[in-house]
Write a structure and sequence with these properties.
Order of helices and strands: HHEEHH
Shape: rod-shaped
Low-confidence stretches: none
Number of strands: 2
Helix content: over 70%
Radius of gyration: 56 Å
Number of helices: 4
């Protein structure tokens, strides 16, 4: 891809448009790079939270299992009593969205209602305190599960978005920007070649003009010389004519005849 370029006609206008494209690509690369860095930072935070949540989850589930075992040992099977006493949900999960650098991450929230009268008679005969303790432990365990589910969902979404963003960053950095730069180099080289050709053409035209001017000047000088020579010949002819007329003898004026006497 080092020599790849766009098929454009090398003109000043296309050069300006291509430079604008290069500026836009560089700006987009910078923005995507910063977005990728922000998402990666949040991704690492979520990974640390998931690790801590899983460690806590193991302990909480262990305590919940032991508490349920204690209740079963003390009171026996109370599952039918719980099902009969439960009229409405006391533990609900709410969902909201969190915007992280343009990526909407779902976040789950635990909504625990205050203990009503529906579980007051559960364990009334024996083990009531242990049942309430087990209920509190399991509420905490479910809250941890909701938190872990929220973190895991955000982890999966961020992982896909970071991969997509990094592919875009690499495509812009290693494909699009070099392609545009090669196009700009091609246009500049072609324009430089056109400038050199234009300079050579103008130089040849100027040389032709100088040659024509010199020829015209020589022609004028030749004609002037011929005119001067013709004028000199005419003057010489006039002078020779005047000299010839002055040397001609006038017989009537010069002859002195003697008088004749008859």
């Amino acid at each position: 891809m080092s020599g790849a370029r766009d098929n454009v006609f090398p003109t000043r206008m296309n050069l300006t448009v291509t430079k604008t494209r290069l500026k836009g690509a560089q700006t987009g690369h910078s923005l995507l790079k910063r977005k990728s860095e922000a998402l990666t930072t949040r991704f690492r935070v979520i990974v640390r939270k998931i690790e801590d949540a899983k460690l806590k989850m193991g302990k909480v589930m262990q305590n919940a299992s032991f508490s349920l075992a204690e209740v079963a040992y003390i009171t026996g099977d109370i599952s039918y009593q719980v099902r009969e006493s439960a009229k409405s949900a006391t533990f609900k999960v709410g969902a909201k969205q969190e915007n992280v650098s343009g990526v909407m991450l779902p976040a789950f929230e635990s909504q625990v209602q205050a203990s009503g009268s529906q579980f007051e008679l559960t364990g009334l005969g024996r083990g009531g305190q242990q049942i309430q303790k087990t209920r509190a432990v399991y509420i905490k365990a479910v809250e941890m599960l909701v938190e872990l589910a929220s973190l895991q969902t955000a982890f999966v979404i961020l992982d896909e978005v970071i991969k997509l963003t990094n592919r875009r960053v690499n495509a812009i950095e290693y494909v699009i920007i070099p392609r545009i730069e090669n196009t700009i180099s091609y246009i500049n080289s072609e324009l430089d070649e056109l400038d050199r050709e234009e300079f050579y053409r103008l130089k040849k035209i100027q040389g032709k003009k100088k040659e024509r001017a010199a020829n015209a000047q020589r022609e004028l000088e030749r004609k002037a010389a011929e005119t001067l020579a013709t004028a000199d010949d005419n003057d010489n002819d006039h002078e020779h004519g005047a000299a010839g007329s002055s040397d001609t003898r006038n017989i009537l004026s010069e002859q002195n005849d003697s008088d004749i006497i008859f």
